Amino acid sequence: MTTIRVLLADDQALLRSAFRVLVDSEPDMEVVGEASDGAQAVRLAKEERADVVLMDIRMPGTDGLAATRMISADPSLAHVRVVILTTFEVDDYVVQSLRAGASGFLGKGSEPEELLSAIRVAAAGEALLSPVATKGLIARFLAQGDSDEDRDPARAERLEALTVREREVLVQVAGGHSNDEIAERLEVSPLTVKTHVNRAMAKLGARDRAQLVVIAYESGLVRPRVE
């Protein structure tokens, strides 16, 4: 069994202690470090070879958003997945964090099982965290500027590198669907879907499925709908 190395980044020591007890209680996880600010989180992610960072957004000094950008921009930390922890799930910083390279977000009020599942999902890099909530959050904020001039033309051009099938799969990923669900919808095998997803990630320079969702919206391939 491969042990998932988890780094806790939160300025509240009590919360870090609670998370540590929860994570260390799992046989496939271990807490390898604790950080009280973003700069320390980036340093410990390198030193402790973390797989997943549970990152609070609001911290003194270097906040979670800046730290997420630093981790995402560092080639030596390409394997690190950042899960944003937020008190308010409807938070503009969450979208900025996803754009900066976070794998997803989770409310601090989530159940323990949800947090543990989020860590495993992020470490595996196979699925978007809280797909329905994340999709809705991205859509809500991107819908505030839904005109063509607000789209990213560079990302729209990069979509031209995708095959027709890869575009179809990307649309389904942006809808928050799992590989199995996409396979059923497109009448192909889950392995074929995974291959298309991996190729799309490579062509678009996305670290994981969360970034694919953001790219799909920002490029205009998928238009957000506000219900």
Overview of this protein structure:
Keywords: DNA-binding, Phosphoprotein, Transcription, Transcription regulation. Residues 5-123 form the Response regulatory domain. It holds the Pfam family GerE. 51% of the residues lie in helices and 12% in strands. It has 11 helices and 5 strands, in the order βαβαβαβαβααααααα. It has 227 residues and is an alpha/beta fold. Strands 2-1-3-4-5 form a 5-stranded parallel beta sheet, sandwiched between helices.
Helix content: 40-55%
Give the SSE order as H and E letters: EHEHEHEHEHHHHHHH
Structural class: alpha/beta
How is the biggest beta sheet arranged?
A: 5 strands, parallel
Lateral strand order in the biggest sheet: 2-1-3-4-5
Number of helices, counting only DSSP H or I runs of 4 residues or more: 11
Q: From the structure provided, what is the oligomeric state, counting identical versus distinct chains?
A: single chain
Shape: globular
Q: What number is the mean pLDDT?
A: 83
The beta-strand count equals 5
Low-confidence stretches: none
| Beta fraction | 5-15%
Backbone CA Rg: 17 Å
Distance between the termini: 43 Å
